[in-house]
Design goal:
- Helix 7 links the parallel strand 4 (180-184) and strand 5.
- The chain folds into 2 domains: 28-143, no CATH class; 147-359, Medium-chain alcohol dehydrogenases, catalytic domain (Quinone Oxidoreductase, Chain A, domain 1, Alpha-Beta Complex), CATH 3.90.180.
- The two termini are 21 Å apart.
- It has helices at 6-9, 30-46, 58-70, 81-93, 109-126, 152-172, 188-199, 212-221, 235-243, 257-265, 288-293, 306-317, 336-344, and strands at residues 2-4, 11-13, 144-146, 180-184, 204-208, 225-227, 247-252, 267-275, 297-300, 327-332, 352-356.
- Helix 3 packs antiparallel against helix 4 (81-93), helix 3 packs parallel to helix 5 and helix 6 packs across helix 12.
- The protein is α/β, with parallel strands linked by helices and 359 residues long.
- The chain is globular and about 65 Å long.
- It is built from 13 helices and 11 strands.
- The protein has a 6-stranded parallel β-sheet with strand order 6-5-4-7-8-9, sandwiched between helices. The chain has a 3-stranded mixed β-sheet with strand order 2-11-10, sandwiched between helices.
- Helices cover 43% and strands 14% of the residues.
């Protein structure tokens, strides 16, 4: 077994964030900079010897670390580099054996784990050396052993593109064999949700996406029905015409109010909607009479945990899960800009690009 961190030895690319653009001088003023400096000074002065701020909520510790990171202070570097190190070390020292980053009670699982995971990724994979580098230093607690029979490209896409939908299906959606499933948004995450749902025994799978290539891929990955919400504005009605009822589990991977509302309309009585897509919008729930009377549930799902990654690696190693169709193209580190330029074109034929620094 090779104890490595798949995410950084073979970097999986799926989307390109547009650079932030200032809209005017009012966005950063001398007054706002002075307020920021005072705020960071307060955080540094009030940080406890263990690295936290009088609370064992790892999410709050993560927010403190994030404030330093946002001003350019990296672990061990910059004026507040030691403060960042202390906060991150506190988070990692309190990681549970299964990878959960929460020690403040089960009701805080999502809040603390989500924020703590985000700040670790920001510190070690985005704001610091790592994401597009040949080598990096990372905490051992984040390492997952890659079986000898699993190549780095498959391991790289597992860390996000496959483990995220597994977490949504298994840990949050509690999919049971024979249940009917709808997947709204069939890009890389949605396509893998279809692949995994079929493997987990879903009795029926409907795929909903506006793009013809995404719908064709969904059918190839195991969907029974592919719907274009432009041509069929009420996919839930089309599912009922095909199945005779709504679905037991619907997953949303887009993050827009209208796609969340589409997801809810697909549910049968007692159905569960798992929302994975993230965005600033505010979707509307059905009327309380209908929603409560039909005993439906809306569940958030954020990322994955270490167990999801480890289990998927074993499934691939044992031949239970085939990800050969998931890597659209591989690039050397020197070809990264080409890969990013291709992603910027938003070609829906792409599942995942992989940059292999060792190539």
């Amino acid at each position: 077994m090779r104890a490595v961190i798949a995410l950084f030895l073979a970097v999986s690319l799926s989307s390109v964030a547009s650079p932030a653009q200032a809209q005017g001088d009012w966005e950063v003023t001398p007054e706002s900079e002075a307020a920021l400096a005072r705020g960071l000074e307060w955080l540094a002065a009030n940080q406890g010897p263990e690295g936290n701020w009088g609370s064992n909520d790892l999410g709050l510790v993560a927010m403190g670390a994030l404030a330093f990171l946002a001003d350019g202070h990296m672990p061990g570097r910059g004026k507040y580099g030691e403060n960042v190190d202390a906060a991150l070390n506190y988070i990692m020292a309190n990681a549970q054996p299964n990878g959960l980053l929460n020690i403040a009670g089960q009701q805080r699982d999502m809040y603390n784990h989500g924020l703590a995971t985000f700040v670790l990724g920001q510190a070690y994979g985005m704001g610091s050396d790592g994401g597009l580098a040949r080598y990096m230093v990372a905490p051992a607690v984040g390492a997952v052993a890659i079986p000898e029979t699993v190549d780095f490209a498959a391991a790289a896409i597992i860390t996000d593109g496959v483990s995220t939908p597994l977490h949504a299906l298994r840990s949050r959606g509690a999919l049971r064999a024979g249940e009917a499933v709808a997947v709204v948004g069939c890009g890389g995450l949605g396509a893998h949700a279809i692949l995994l749902a079929r493997m987990m025994g879903a009795g029926f799978i409907a795929a909903i996406d506006t793009q013809p290539l995404a719908r064709a891929r969904a059918l190839a990955f195991g969907a029974d029905l592919a719907l274009d919400p432009v041509e069929q504005p009420n996919p839930g009605r089309a599912i009922r015409a095909e199945l005779g009822r709504g679905v037991d589990l619907a997953l949303e991977f887009v993050g827009r109010p209208e796609t969340v509302e589409t997801t809810l309309r697909c549910l049968d009585t007692g159905g569960r909607a798992v929302l994975v897509g993230v965005g600033p919008g505010r979707p509307s729930l059905p009327s309380l009479l209908a929603f409560v009377g039909r005993e439906q549930a809306v569940i958030g799902s954020f990322g994955m945990d270490k167990r999801d990654i480890a289990d998927l690696l074993q499934l691939v190693a044992r031949g239970r899960l085939d990800l050969s169709r998931s890597v659209t193209r591989r690039f050397a580190l020197s070809e990264t800009n080409e890969a990013l330029a291709l992603l910027a074109k938003k070609d829906t034929g792409v599942v995942r690009f992989v940059v292999e620094p060792g190539r």
